[in-house]
Design brief:
- The chain is built from nine helices and two strands, in the order H-H-H-H-H-E-E-H-H-H-H.
- The chain is mainly α.
- The chain has two domains: 132 residues; 70 residues, no CATH class.
- Strand 1 and strand 2 form a beta hairpin.
- The longest helix is centred in the middle third of the chain and has 39 residues.
- It holds the Pfam family Rx_N.
Amino acid sequence: VVDQLLPLLREEAKLLRGVHKEFADIKDELESIQAFLKDADKRAALADGEGVKTWVKQVREVAFRIEDIIDDYLIQVGQKSPDSGCVALVCKIKTMIPRRRIVSEIQDIKSSVREIKERSERYGFQRSLEQGSSNSRGSWNAKWHDPRVAALYIEEGEVVGYEIQRERLIDWLIKGRDERTVVSVVGMGGQGKTTLAKKVFDSKNVIGHFDCRVWITVSQSYNVEGLLR
């Protein structure tokens, strides 16, 4: 049995390295797209033709997909497993399936990004957009970094820099109002919103306070009936 499991563990280690690399690449791509989209709609309105507007819409949809997969990745990273023993081995094997899905989805997104860029070059969408405004900030290749990203570093599932926010959210949930309340965690994609929410969801204080809990992931495209099930 051990001889059969060793190749799986080696494959899991290789896959983990691949996921981290793919995540870093797609996160950089998201930062570039976010810089591009900051005033793309305004410049698209000044450009001639519906093609440019459709192209900007496609770019934004890709950004939504990237944000979703970043959240999925951070959930996977934030899940702790036992340090040793058979249970830990089973947990490592079980995580291979969602990680494979994440890698596959990222590769599909990167393919979509390449196709969108190729269409831009083929039909001159980028040039048309830049002609709509003298501001060169709209270039897709321009880099823009949100300063808040530096406050969050994720390694082996540990969230650094959000301890105060986590404790505040837990306090709101436990000591909050009796009626139904919505607590929103907002921010740009990749900052760890989902990881922060998961840390609160898995808190011992929260588990002990509520009779029941449920974790539901709602992506950009969802089915209401599926969510209710």
